[in-house]
Amino acid sequence: MRKSVLTATTALCGFFALAAPALAQETETGGANKPASQLSEIVVTAQRREESAQTVPIAITAISGAELDARGVSSALDVVQYIPNMVGMNNTGLGSSNTYYIRGLGSTESIATFDPPVGTYIDDVYLSRQGANNLSLFDVDRIEVLRGPQGTLFGRNTTGGAVSVHMAEPTFDGIGGFAEAGYGTYHKKLLRGSINIPLSDTFAAKVSGYWQNDDGYVKDVTTGERLNDGDGWGARLALKGELSDSVTWNFGYTHVVDNSENVLNFTCNPDDTTECDGRYATTGFSKTATSQFADLGVKGAKAYYGNGNHAVSNLITNKVAIDLAPSTRLELITGYVRQNQQYGLDFYDGRAAPSTSNPYPAVAGNSNGGYILLNDNWSDQFSQEVKLNGSAFGGFLDYVAGVYYMKEDNSTNGAAIYSGYLLQDSITRNSTETVAGYAQGDLNVTDKLKLTAGIRWTDEVKKVGISDLRDSCASGGTNCLTTANLVANGIPTKLTTKMWTPRFAVNYQANQDVLLYASATRGFRSGGWSARATTPDAFLPFGPEKVWSYEAGIKSQWFDNHVRANLTFYWEDVSDLQTPAGYVTSTGSLTFITRNFADYRNRGVEAEFEVMPVAGLNLHFSGGYQDDKYIIDRNAATYDEYGVMSVAAQQASCLAGTAANCGKGIVAPDGSIATPVRTPDWTLAMGANYEIPLGNLSLVPSVDATWRSAMEVQTSNVTIYYDQDTSTGTYSAAGNTYVVGSRVDPLWMFNAGLALNGPDKAWQISVNCQNCTNKVYGQSYLGYTYINPPRTVMAKLRYNF
Hints:
The protein is mainly beta.
């Protein structure tokens, strides 16, 4: 397999070499009515300073705001399809929450005692919570996706990589902006706009916003309501001032309201399997439900929640840049994030666990839902960074150094209800305080050779406490979720991590268009607690996830910047991989556990190509291959200090005939070690857009196609295939009519668009479709398989001024 990968990538590089004569052409600069004739350069800050993306020795994909618009990208989740070896999707239930996996590292947990391994940043400010990271991209300059650990310059919780969103800054060159309106499938309405206002020669403001509303693509056949709508709105105020010749100030305040959910749905009506012309849910949990959970003893406002998800985010970024000398800049980066997420969601659609007699079993006597989670979470995060960039010794040394502080406080008021029984009702409060210092230096040994060394020291303290709100726990009890009971069960309520995360790299700039590099980088993800537990003995801690990544790559431009070709090889070794596992026990109850089950190894190759053979025609291709596996400790003790069986012992027990230990954790139903989730062997993306001049107008068709090979989306790879006997309406296992479980077959997806630009691009009429062929595939698994959204089409009218 490795030989075939090398052959394929060599062939791709050879294609561009053979294509040189066809692509060589004059390089005139396009005017206002003329398409650009060269690939544009994107300046990034992947190394915490401004550099061309082609000179950065990091596997990075950078997409400009203009290119995002050309591809019809409207949310952070849409970007994932263009990134090799990256998989992303909405989390179960939560339309506002994205699950990102890069090179096999990711997390499906949004609860505040877990940290994601793919960090999200807005203007260099870290968003610690994954519950509302599906950002609407309504005023973006560019997005940078960094693959591999970024532990030296970005810090903790970037073992998989980072998604860095950079918002557009105000400018001083006149009033300008745009207004846009759109209408699409499921009666979706969209309004977006932005206006830039110079207030003086050195001070400007920018106001941007969006609003969207739709009916939802899922029909609830029990309540008659529409579900999985994507309603929301957001506004942003940005200020920029040149306070003096050496001081620049950038300020941003963003407020976003997201009312989207990802409720379990089916392509056929479970109550009438002959009805298969849409998306269906059968939960009796209504959007307008009131007080039904108060009757079960649920405390607080959440007892009156209806079916839905409501997330509110407030983000403040403040940057002050001071030029201390011609080659030295000091930056003060302050961030404040406040998020509130409230939801009531039925994760089993009013149904019990699937069985061989019926993959759609209803919960007898319970029309309100099967497995319902109620949540009222508040998160406050403050961060301060002081960063110094500069050069010394006549340019022999380029450096970046800084200190970083973050304090986060979370309060999660949540309840879990299964088949009408209150499993949990508690308030979990947890905090994180982090102090870090970092430095990285580039030694310019010659004009072509550069040696890089960097290191970061992180000192982190996490604390947790919990209060049980159930009436049965008013007078105490050993099974109540209280801090005292955690301590009594030996569960630590404080976790301290001190970690060095170095980086080493060597760069060789063969010429101005070709960069060769190799690097070794360490990163880590914070530990935490399994806060989904319903008893104190299961509220287990898990330790940090640590990774070393080794990369070698080439970044190149050819034919007078008409072709860009980048190639990366990597080897990734992970210690103590954090693995969340949720499964239905033999008694029918739902159990969640997260442990450092195993180590992990991933190796692969990534290629990205951009081509502009003629003016206005942009072609792009990216591909990734990865080969990964869990590595378990065969010499581990049978049970750890918390009574959890080791993977090796569990596997041996399963193979010896103990069925209860099969299909749990990372042991597959057949007793083998499971295939890691969301790591398809191959990911491919390709597309084109062509600006065709039509006098003063221009027509821009675009098409994008993505393909990925088969993958798993459930930790223990549990998959059941059913056949239906249409004469009796009964089901049998080992069939093909209906699939419950984790296996996702190979998949092609297509997006397309067509835009008409007016004179000088003063206006635009466009239509875009996402998932144009209406493909259906599994994204996640929680008792049932959660599937992707259906085809959507939107027409938009935009006016630029």
